[in-house]
Amino acid sequence: VFIRNIWYPCAWSHEIGRSLFERWICNEPMVFFRTEAGKPVALYNRCVHRRAPLSKGQLIGDRLQCGYHGLEYDCSGKCVKIPGQDAIPAGAAVKSYPVADKWRFLWVWPGDPDKADASLIPDLHWNDSPGWVAPGDTLTIGCNYLVDLDNLMDLSHLTYLHGRTIGTPYVSEFPSTTQVIGERVNVTRWMIDRPAPPLFQRVGGFRQNVDRWQIIDWTAPGNVVIDVGCAPTGSGAPQGDRSKGIEARSLNLVTPMTERQTLYLWSYCRNYKLDDESVTKTIYEDVKRTFFEDKDMLEAQQHLIDTDSPQAHTISLRVDSGPMQVRRIIERILKREAQGEPLAA
Amino acid sequence: VFIRNIWYPCAWSHEIGRSLFERWICNEPMVFFRTEAGKPVALYNRCVHRRAPLSKGQLIGDRLQCGYHGLEYDCSGKCVKIPGQDAIPAGAAVKSYPVADKWRFLWVWPGDPDKADASLIPDLHWNDSPGWVAPGDTLTIGCNYLVDLDNLMDLSHLTYLHGRTIGTPYVSEFPSTTQVIGERVNVTRWMIDRPAPPLFQRVGGFRQNVDRWQIIDWTAPGNVVIDVGCAPTGSGAPQGDRSKGIEARSLNLVTPMTERQTLYLWSYCRNYKLDDESVTKTIYEDVKRTFFEDKDMLEAQQHLIDTDSPQAHTISLRVDSGPMQVRRIIERILKREAQGEPLAA
Amino acid sequence: VFIRNIWYPCAWSHEIGRSLFERWICNEPMVFFRTEAGKPVALYNRCVHRRAPLSKGQLIGDRLQCGYHGLEYDCSGKCVKIPGQDAIPAGAAVKSYPVADKWRFLWVWPGDPDKADASLIPDLHWNDSPGWVAPGDTLTIGCNYLVDLDNLMDLSHLTYLHGRTIGTPYVSEFPSTTQVIGERVNVTRWMIDRPAPPLFQRVGGFRQNVDRWQIIDWTAPGNVVIDVGCAPTGSGAPQGDRSKGIEARSLNLVTPMTERQTLYLWSYCRNYKLDDESVTKTIYEDVKRTFFEDKDMLEAQQHLIDTDSPQAHTISLRVDSGPMQVRRIIERILKREAQGEPLAA
């Protein structure tokens, strides 16, 4: 069960054009394209006639023609032409999903279209602003999206899983604090007077110790913005001065495709050395490598979850408070939705 | 559930010889071979001892010896030798299926052997007569055989799926008429005064417009003979004169292997340019390419059927009358069989 | 359901070292390693925190550190360190399995550790004694371990499946006798005055006829020792004189990994031509080839078992008495275990 009345990031905006693009989102097959005027469209990807995938058809102007028997749909999902007959039966339509381009991502709303309000899309302006450069990519992970969110909401795993790039021995030693602000979850960790991690050393040239921060901000369903950075120890008090260090926003957008497939759109936004292609390249490669380490672990973990009894004994740790709050809020939203209550203010 | 008391085409006759040939038909594992005298034999492909596949054994004269523990079966499926013991237990036998060579195909009867009457095999003489040349081949498709029959009984899809070979923009514009004759279904479409499709142009050299026909004749379970051809417009009235054009019989024999695997034996029989190898080659390659387009669509469609609710809303079109009649008659035969009623006259 | 209170051979001893080694045994994920002092350890391979596979972690001295969030376990499976917190919750532990190195194999006891007594490991000294040379290897077979045991307890299949190596036309002609001795099963077959099989001819140079024996000794759960050999006919009475022929012990250790995956550790121990590397090589390659023939048949058989009705009619043969006794004793042990009765004396 997934939240329905919410925006899901479903692709990079530039991926959607005049070629039909197929992707499952929240257990529903969807086909994406743009109109001749460039407006994005998302339709249910099962022809109402014989369930053929519309993504195997073609665009005729702004109509999507099924590649099997030629039914044509307009952008609202209404069937507007049936070859060989004039009458179009009642109910000849597929669902059309509200979509929006925002922050260079495409967002889709699987629920009640009347409730879709683009202003509910969270702020990810770092991905689309002057003064920021943001290499990124797409990954699919063979696990449930909640398992992936557990990963993102507790960065103590950097020490053990990502020692080659962004992990350092000390991350897990420093405590983090979790705050719930309405239906946001914020997890903050400061690491004081320690060496910079390999990536920051590579791109920032830090020789001396730094004060380093990770400030995670989650909004439903799976938008995780991590404010990361470091500044020389002593450059400010009680922590290093952000303006004297480097900072970035790590965007991690996690969307359920199916119960066991998760779409992972990531972007690493920085505001320094904007024109240095080699820094961009180093960041892209390090982050990509890091996320493949996560993918490998998450898929192995999902297999061991699926082959275990759901009642098996497990324990929770202090570092689980962020992940737990996220799961709790998702449960709350699902319950609210099941009871037909309005969206949260 | 599949019809049992009926002939299923299960291979090309030439494929069955003194090598053991394994194929699932109607959810049953079967092994096929020929006796030394050339008579075809089909046995249940699970040894009665430990369920090993008999097709991994060998022929000793006309006996099939299991490759695991050496039990030997005669052509009636009776176990006639057990190594290391003289007594053969009661019930030591596997099912033997009636088989028949006809029209260069091998046919198998999964049901009551006493009811198997070779004269019930439908007429496909074009595949095995002087004056006709018939290249063909075998395909397996990952879908239920009814989904494949839907495809064959409504050729309006040629316009959308097969534009490179036998499709033309106008096929779906012309209406077809469906007739039920006893337990046959006949779907006829005439397309008047239009260009010939690419394949007919290539092999028939038509420059001017033609009158083109598609006359589909289905008999249970999955034998679809399509009389196709075209003649110059004006060569006859109210339609072109068949004798002044070219014609062919497209044989499409569709047999369930399992619920999700379909055997597709096809042959394209023509009565012109018999000795022109290049025409044979062009036809073979065009038809093969065409059927791979079907395979690709049908497997994608089956996946979307299987991941959808069976109760999901779908619509029927005018072009579905052929497919619908076929499904209706198959239902009727299954019901008759379940009630133990005799075969249709 | 598998027997719990018993030793299962789970790897070659030399395979376990300071690298983490992952293997499912009896439907449980296990991780194996050795302490710095060389003692073997087996732990449950699911972290008690988030179920990550511990085998993706690393050894820190004799502690196993989870590669996801850094929990550390000692060799008893107790969690002894949790990064970022001092308190260790009650129940923070994974199961630790008794293990033992014996006869160059590693053995694991999935059941009650208090009952694990290394003296219960069966005698396989041929694999680890002066005067014997024993090439061997590991195979996994996609079938239930009982299906594999059926294979090993009835060697009449050599005639049909292994004609290129150890099979001869006459094996299945000679009767075997089955004896149950406590909870051992012994199947003996003597084949008198016949040519030696290909492998014995290759390594023993027998030109004249031999008396050949196969004496199978099974102990639970899946330890099959086959005393095989041959001696010139007439060299003794009533059978050939063992001291004038060649003999070997074929060790076949069969362990359930899951319901449909079986671990097969094999070794072929001989006491002649100890230094002749070419004999070792010939034996290794012939036996390996032989067991791949078994694997191919067993996996095909398992598929036909799984697609058949469990109630389908099958027959039993005289040669099945060995396999049947084995299944009967395993049932008896399972029943005893389910009722909490003590191990057999």
Helix content of chain A: 10-25%
What's the story with the biggest beta sheet of chain A? 7 strands, antiparallel
Quote the beta fraction of chain A: 25-35%
Q: Give, in spatial order, the strands making up the sheet with the most strands of chain A.
A: 12-18-17-16-15-14-13
Task: Give the uncertain stretches of chain A in residue-range form.
Answer: none
Query: For this entry, what is the oligomeric state of its chains?
Result: homotrimer
The largest chain-to-chain contact, stated as pair and per-chain residue counts, equals: B-C, 24 and 28 residues
The string of secondary-structure elements of chain A, in order, is EEEEEEEEEEEEHHEEHEEEEHH
- Summing up helix and strand content along with how strands pair, one would put the structural category of chain A as alpha+beta
Question: Using only CA atoms, what is the Rg of chain A?
Answer: 22 Å
Name the features.
seven-stranded antiparallel β-sheet, four-stranded antiparallel β-sheet, 345 residues, alpha+beta, 18 strands, homotrimer
Describe the model:
- Three copies of one chain form a homotrimer.
- The first copy, chain A, is globular, with a radius of gyration of 22 Å.
- Chain A has helices at 145-153, 158-161, 198-204, 277-306, 321-338, and strands spanning 8-12, 21-25, 28-34, 40-44, 58-60, 63-65, 72-73, 79-81, 96-97, 99-102, 105-108, 136-141, 176-181, 184-194, 210-219, 223-232, 246-258, 261-270.
- In chain A, a hairpin with a 2-residue loop joins strand 17 (246-258) and strand 18 (261-270).
- In chain A, the strands form four sheets. In chain A, strands 12-18-17-16-15-14-13 form a seven-stranded antiparallel β-sheet. In chain A, strands 2-3-4-9 form a four-stranded antiparallel β-sheet, with no helix packed on it. Chain A has a four-stranded antiparallel β-sheet with strand order 5-6-7-8, with no helix packed on it.
- The longest helix of chain A has 30 residues, at 277-306.
- Chain A is an alpha+beta fold and 345 residues long.
- Chains in contact: A-B, A-C, B-C.
- At the B-C interface, loops of B face helix 2 and helix 4 of C.
